[in-house]
Amino acid sequence: MAEYSAARSVLVTGGNRGIGLAIARAFAEQGDKVAVTYRSGEPPAVPVKGEGSFLAVRCDITVPEDVERAFQEVAQAHGPVEVLVANAGITRDTLVLRMSDEDFDAVVDTNLKGSFRVARLAAKGMLRMRRGRIIFISSVVGLSGSAGQVNYAASKAGLVGMARSLARELGSRSITANVVAPGFVDTEMTAVLTEERRAQIVSQVPLGRYASVDEVAGVVKFLASPDAAYINGAVIPVDGGLGMGH
Ligand code: NDP
């Protein structure tokens, strides 16, 4: 059975807003030492109660030097990352014939390669500690596909192969790698959808609504908890039933 320190060093990429911020808050509230990356704007403020602490590091996950520096800053402040949540992601939706190489590359470089960059550095420290949790935020569309999202769905499907390879490669050191696949969540990413599209999506979700950011955060927190020590290489849907069967 893996052992856990009381307050773990947790890193959440894209933790300045949306799902990432909710995940950061969930860990901070239970007393972990939480770091988030932010790329633009002001560093987010997360009130921390009890033993935990919070750090915001500026980092664009498409820039390798940024990622290196962020990991150094986190290690100095909180110790090596024990829980990595690779959450940062973007969309550049358009139909395939209109999708440029640039649209494709930007999404894959952020969602897939950016996650690889942070997972590789996290794995380095975790291998030394002989423990760790890596959690990738994918999407229901990575498995079901989505018209207008060839780039995004490909990047999110890639995370499944990445997590399962890491699960096989790192499992003997008590490091798990899992994927959370949310459906539609109320954030700035989905705020751009038209009312018509929103109604269409909701009509296909058995629960008949979007998820809240906290409903995703709770599952991520569980995957990093001692209760999830034997869950490895799994894809956990948090989609209200939208993707059932995939
Ligand atoms: P938001 O658009 O609200 O936030 C995206 C976050 O990612 C921001 O913090 C943003 O930082 C960060 N980010 C984007 N690009 C980079 C980069 N190059 N380097 C560092 N950070 C970056 O998205 P959500 O909170 O909705 O989504 C979070 C994750 O969940 C994403 O991976 C998304 O694909 C996934 N997801 C979302 C769903 C939804 O319905 N909302 C459904 C399924 C999956 P900045 O503020 O600087 O731009």
Automatic annotation (TrEMBL):
SUPFAM superfamilies reported in the protein's UniProt record: NAD(P)-binding Rossmann-fold domains
User: Example GO biological process term?
Assistant: fatty acid biosynthetic process
UniProt-annotated binding residues for NADP(+): G14, G15, N16, R17, N87, Y152, A153, A154, S155, K156
- Pathway this chain belongs to: Lipid metabolism; fatty acid biosynthesis
Q: Which GO terms describe its molecular function?
A: 3-oxoacyl-[acyl-carrier-protein] reductase (NADPH) activity; NAD binding
Q: Identify the residues that the record assigns to the Ketoreductase domain, covering every copy.
A: 8-188
- CDD domains linked to this entry: BKR_SDR_c
What's the protein called, per UniProt? 3-oxoacyl-[acyl-carrier-protein] reductase
Q: Which organism is it from?
A: Actinocrinis puniceicyclus
Gene for this chain: fabG
